């Protein structure tokens, strides 16, 4: 399982340009300090860190979204940290690979975006996901395969995304950085 100290180091290494993202990063770091034993564990009912990925195609023009079976929304790929995950980055890459069926994904060194959202996840009780998001690039010609967690997978143009406002916000941040040549993957 991702150790709290590792998660804190990953978040500390990231310096977001956006003040809102900086504030959320600080809140997640404070949460990690307050819950040193279980902040990354799905059994932590008050909330737990999750790891996800904005998967973009090789050209950087589309993102891969999953139609989540339970939530019935188009979302980025990602989920809970598992026992074999050494870091949030490892968890995000594992989730992206499992959910997309795409081998050879490359992932950013540091987080790309963070978000906090209330929901009822696999615990069956209301909780919060403190989502740490990474940028992931698919190899050229990548064809996704639907997993048991997805009702559908689809490449969407970055400027025409459905559903979740957080996905659109994350994609807009990518487009701004991409247009300024600030993407390194």
> What structural class do helix, strand and pairing data support?
alpha+beta
Terminal Cα separation, in Å? 25 Å
Shape: globular
Task: Please report the number of helical segments.
Answer: 4
CATH architecture level-2 label: Alpha-Beta Complex
Number of domains: 1
Total strands = 8
Report Rg.
Answer: 15 Å
Low-pLDDT stretches are none
Content of β-strand = 25-35%
The CATH superfamily turns out to be Nucleoside Triphosphate Pyrophosphohydrolase
Text of the CATH class? Alpha Beta
Q: Enter the CATH topology name.
A: Nucleoside Triphosphate Pyrophosphohydrolase
Indicate the mean pLDDT: 92
What is the helix fraction of residues, given as a range? 25-40%
Strand and helix order: HHEEEEHEEEEH
Q: Strand count, sense and closure of the main sheet?
A: 8 strands, mixed
């Amino acid at each position: 399982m991702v150790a709290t100290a590792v998660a804190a180091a990953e978040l500390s290494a990231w310096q977001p340009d956006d003040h809102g993202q900086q504030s959320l990063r600080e809140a997640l770091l404070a949460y990690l300090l307050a819950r040193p034993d279980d902040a990354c564990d799905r059994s932590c009912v008050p909330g737990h860190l999750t790891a996800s990925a904005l998967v973009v195609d090789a050209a950087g023009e589309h993102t891969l979204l999953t139609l989540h079976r339970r939530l019935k929304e188009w979302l980025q790929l990602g989920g809970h940290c598992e026992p074999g995950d050494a870091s949030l980055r490892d968890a995000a890459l594992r989730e992206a690979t499992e959910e997309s069926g795409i081998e050879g994904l490359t992932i950013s060194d540091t987080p790309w975006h963070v978000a906090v959202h209330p929901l009822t996840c696999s615990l069956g009780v209301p909780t919060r996901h403190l989502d740490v998001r990474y940028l992931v690039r698919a190899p050229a010609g990548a064809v996704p395969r639907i997993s048991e967690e997805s009702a559908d997978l689809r490449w969407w143009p970055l400027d025409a995304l459905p559903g979740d406002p957080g996905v659109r916000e994350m994609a807009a941040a990518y487009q701004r950085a991409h247009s300024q040549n600030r993407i390194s993957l």
